[in-house]
Design goal:
Elements: H1 7-11, E1 17-18, E2 20-25, E3 31-36, E4 39-43, E5 48-54, H2 58-66, E6 68-73, H3 79-87, H4 95-99, E7 103-105, E8 112-114, E9 119-131, E10 134-146, E11 153-156, E12 163-166
Antiparallel strand pairs: 1-11, 2-3, 2-6, 4-5, 5-10, 6-9, 7-8, 9-10, 11-12
Amino acid sequence: MQKEVPFAEAKSLKYPEQVAIAVVRNGHDKYNPIALGWAMQTSHEPPMWAISIGRGRYSLGALRQAGEFVLALPSESQENETLLFGTRSGRDVDKLAEAGTRTRRAARIDGVLLEDAVANFECRVVGELESGDHVIFVGEVLASYVNEAAPNRLYTVAPGHQLAGLPRG
């Protein structure tokens, strides 16, 4: 039997959920990662991802200007990096340098891949939708990469900033 409850109470039951990282070139020739709670595949052919960024985030303007992004699925070894990417602003700090994140140049866009991530996707923005206090961007996947070491994926396991690695599959 279902009972009506406040949205926040029902929403708390969605955990664990994926966490993702979008990396966007900012206007200062640096690459800015942002941790995201909301990312989903939206199409098989052509392959596409949608990501959601808050209206007040520095990365929103950077993504609109760049028109492309790398979507990375972080590994459990990237817990501290992911927390930094979600709590610091690229307006104030070079997050990749501060975290000591290993990167390599993307092949098809002006971006970087996160070497320790489970997977990376180079995406070109093909659509944008206003959604309340966030903006949803749809990116067509131009190239995909997987980590040959097959590390476990990082997830958000509770409200706030609690993260944990969970086995793949």
